[in-house]
Amino acid sequence: MKKLHSMIMMIAMMVASLSLTACNGDDEDGISKWKKTLTIDGESYYCSKYSKVSQSYGWESLGDLEWYDRGMYLTICAIGDTKKYSHYVEKNLTIVLPPSRVSMLKVGDVFDYDRISVRNFNNYNEIVLDTYNWDAISGNITIREITETTLTIQINKLVIESHRGAKRTIDGIATLTNSLSDSNGNVLPFSYNPYKK
């Protein structure tokens, strides 16, 4: 009887280990292949592939969305360890840089905190008190690399503060892709203008 019990336990352990291996291997975002390049308040995060650059094309082309011409929107999706958290995106930061297009940037450009506008900051593991009421109060962002479809930035101890007094410190590297893609899901180059005739 003890032998049968041992065999059943061993089979159960084998099945459990195989299922865990399958989950890790089938992770839709391939998280196991990534490196944690971001820290928020000292905790390490992966920069999700859903991190995007939204260029501005001018309010004349976008109807009544005049606010969109204020600059270029960078949305950084930070995710934690999937074994620790139940959902992928843990923190979502959207900032606005003054240039409206990637073509206006060059590697080495530095944007100090007073030139960075914080559009929103979401922490999906906390009660959201201030999603939209944040300001950058110190730190900067450096343009590290520009390709045809991606923008890599170095975030240098960027401190943001909510209007209620909460502070967050973001540090590290984030690679963002162009928010525009074609009908097949292929990311379009930054040079593509959907409103140009």
Please name the defining characteristics of this protein.
globular, 1 helix, 5-stranded mixed barrel, single chain, 197 residues, mainly beta
Task: Write up what this structure looks like.
This protein has 197 residues and is mainly beta. The chain has 1 helix and 10 strands. The longest helix has 24 residues, at 2-25. The radius of gyration is 21 Å and the shape is globular.
Can you give the helix content as a percent range?
10-25%
Low-confidence stretches: 7-33, 59-69
Tally the helices. Answer: 1
Mean pLDDT: 77
Tell the overall outline.
globular
**Could you give the order of the helices and strands?**
HEEEEEEEEEE
Described by strand count, sense and barrel closure, the largest sheet is:
5 strands, mixed, barrel
Rg estimate, integer Å: 21 Å
Structural class of the helix and strand makeup?
A: mainly beta
First-to-last CA distance: 79 Å
Q: How is the largest sheet built, in terms of strand order? A: 1-2-4-3-10
Number of strands: 10
β content, as a range? 35-45%
